[in-house]
Amino acid sequence: MEMKIGVIKGDGIGPEIVDEALKVLNKVAEVYGHSLSYTQLLMGGASIDEYGVPLTDETLKLAKESDAVLMGSIGGDAKTSPWYQLEPSKRPEAGLLALRKGLNLFANLRPAVLYEELKGACPLKEEIADRGFDMMIMRELTGGLYFGARSTEMIDGVLTAKDELTYNENEIRRIAVRAFDIAMKRRKKVTSVDKANVLDSSRLWRKIVEETAADYPEVELEHMLVDNCAMQLVKDPAQFDVVLTENMFGDILSDEASMVTGSIGMLASASLNETKFGLYEPSGGSAPDIAGKGIANPIATILSAAMMLRYSFDLDREADAIEKAVADVLRDGYRTIDIMSEGKRQIGTREMGDRICSYIM
Ligand code: NAD
Q1: Is 355 annotated in some ligand binding site?
Q2: Which terminus has fewer CB within 10 Å in the chain: N or C?
Q3: Where substrate is bound, by residue (predicted)?
Q4: Does pLDDT of 120 surpass 90?
Q5: pLDDT averaged over every residue in the chain
Q6: Which class does domain 123-261 fall in?
Q7: Which atom, in ligand 1's list, is nearest to the CA of 299?
Q8: In the structure, what pLDDT confidence band is assigned to residue 286 with cuts at 50, 70 and 90?
Q9: Mean of the pLDDT values across residues 310-324?
């Protein structure tokens, strides 16, 4: 297969961790006979330094012309970086928001996986961690409360703030379809999370998700109220496969699910639109505190590249090979500093990339 990939190395540790992900992709292409071409794109701080703005129209155009975009993290230290002397719309993060909007990325996917070898980092009780978990939090990204009308005004002499939560059936259906498609590639279960006992938007959410489920008879669907879901994530995370939810609930639940895995350097993510296109990036930031030291954990970016192969190119076998190589490296005791524990062997960013490549055969 020929794959045209846009690459945004980003700021801070971005270039270091993206280089390792590209190394792994190149190894996969060699072993499985694929052809990859990369277009380097500047976004965030690196784009401000070069062009004075965090995202140019040309970069957005080139991103749209790619089959998928792999990205490191962007941004710098808000206290010391000159990027943060600029007005908010010119800062690095504004580039990322504009890119997501320009690419119409409405579905955010964050896997939360507890690796057998990293169980010690899991903050949950031992008997819960022992059961392991492997879930995909799927969050609607462009609708709901964060995009509704808002106002603060004096009503009858009382200062009153208002935020509107709106979803239409099309916005719900398109993400529900993605969730069921993804469940078909996994353990075939969708937990749709809402607050249907209170909110009209949640009742519509539930109705449309149920209609969508009718097209996927192999997938088990359950509904869960968001307050219960927040509890279940720490009580019994093993029960979840795909967790589908709206923007604000997803914002909170995806962070909660990330925390129970115990390591930020391991967390991949993807944002998808209606086509096969996706933007794939680690969940963590640009870690300016460790940039340039060669110690950043590249695994989240490498796993994001695996997600790219699975969801943008339907190369499940190749994605499995990367995920297995990561598990093998951990099993053999290699760790970057952030996931280091007693008796394990500490290695740097590059060696981690090399070792993962060596397990892909
Ligand atoms: P951060 O995630 O960059 O760092 C938090 C802590 O985690 C730091 O101690 C860091 O060293 C560590 N860490 C993060 N990734 C790591 C990795 N791969 N390996 C080892 N350790 C890792 O969060 P922050 O310090 O709050 O933010 C730094 C910058 O990143 C800010 O400018 C912020 O806006 C930006 N940011 C960007 C994105 C993105 O590009 N999507 C996301 C979050 C934050």
Answers
A1: no
A2: C
A3: 100, 110, 139, 227
A4: no
A5: 96
A6: alpha beta
A7: 18
A8: very high
A9: 97
| Cα 93 to ligand 1 centroid, rounded to whole Å | 13
Measure CA of the first residue to CA of the last residue in the chain; give whole Å.
18
Do the beta carbons of residue 268 and residue 303 sit within 8 Å?
yes
pLDDT at position 121, please?
Answer: 84
pLDDT over threshold 90, residue 130? yes
pTM: 0.94
pLDDT digits (tens, 9 = 90+) for 63-109: 999 999 999 999 999 999 999 999 999 999 999 989 998 999 999 99
Sheet holding 242-245, edge to edge: 35-41, 2-8, 68-71, 278-282, 268-272, 107-113, 134-140, 242-245, 189-194, 220-225
Q: Is the CB of 14 under 6 A from ligand 1?
A: no
Task: Please state the rounded mean pLDDT for residues 152-175.
Answer: 97
287 is in an annotated binding site: yes
CA 254 to CA 245: how far, in whole Å? 10
Residue 58 pLDDT level (bands cut at 50, 70, 90): very high
| Domain edges within the chain | 1-113+262-361, 123-261
The residue whose two tokens read 């709206």 is 246
- Give every CB contact of residue 154 below 8 A, 6+ residues apart in sequence: 160
In Å, how far from its chain's centre is CA 156?
A: 44
Q: Which CATH superfamily is domain 1-113+262-361 in?
A: Isopropylmalate Dehydrogenase (3.40.718.10)
Tell me if residue 194 is catalytic: no
What SS3 state is found at 157?
Answer: coil
Does the C-beta of 81 come closer than 6 Å to ligand 1? no
Q: What is the pLDDT of residue 209?
A: 98
Give yes or no for residue 74 CB within 6 A of ligand 1.
yes
Provide the CB-side half-sphere exposure for 88 (13 A, CA): 1
43 lines ligand 1 (CB under 6 A): no
Q: Is the CB of 93 within 6 Å of ligand 1? A: yes
Bridging pattern class, strands 158-163 and 268-272: unpaired
Q: Let me know if 255 is a catalytic residue.
A: yes
The answer to whether the annotation marks 227 as part of a ligand binding site is: yes
125 is catalytic: no
